[in-house]
Amino acid sequence: MLKVQFKKTLRSGKESFTLSAAFQTSADRIVLFGASGAGKSQTLRAIAGLTKPDEGCIQFKEQTWFDHSNFIDLAPPKRKVGFLFQDYALFPHLTVSQNIAFGLTKTSVNPSKKTILPEVATWLDRLNITNLAHLLPSALSGGQRQRVALARTLITSPQLLLLDEPFAAVDAGLRQQMRQVISELQQSLNIPLIMITHDPEDRDYFGERIIHCEQGYIHG
Ligand SMILES: Nc1ncnc2c1ncn2[C@@H]1O[C@H](COP(=O)(O)OP(=O)(O)OP(=O)(O)O)[C@@H](O)[C@H]1O
Prior knowledge:
alpha/beta; eleven-stranded mixed beta sheet; 30% helix; binds adenosine-5'-triphosphate
């Protein structure tokens, strides 16, 4: 069960944008659907704890992640959310296996280039990218980068997966394949996901529950 009810005003100079989100669902596949600039990414950031709302509450299962009235604001790591950013945010100077291992490290020391941890090997295999383990992100295709980013997120065992336009950097031919990869992972890991998209095909594929986003008004 996810309950989201908050308001947030973003300001830069004289410009301001007010986000008003209100939805509640127990669906496992939630789609935030709407045009560019509607407030989808900011909503996801608030759920992840990367942006603090001005008022309201966010609850996931039995946990309160944010409650303005009661001064509750759980830090992002405590929410145990896996966030797949639009550009995948891979570290360009680290190999595929190091990027994935980074999800596990608790220090700022880079993971070893030579030793592949058993958990990393498992995720390399699961995402079918074992043959890419020693490559740098610059040598990968869009679809391969997405698999690496997914592995780096999922190795942390998140309880909720947040995907910000996951197919934006993947060409049309690969999109259906990547939809299947994400769909199968979601089902086998049995974790709910929230996906941002403005592609009606993604909405129809993943939208067990569709939240409409329009000019800062996020409702469903
Ligand atoms: N710091 C800020 N100050 C003022 N406005 C902001 C700030 N950050 C974001 N915005 C505005 O908030 C609105 C929502 O942004 P958001 O990134 O959530 O949109 P989106 O629906 O995810 O769009 P897209 O699909 O293009 O990624 C935009 O109009 C943006 O200009």
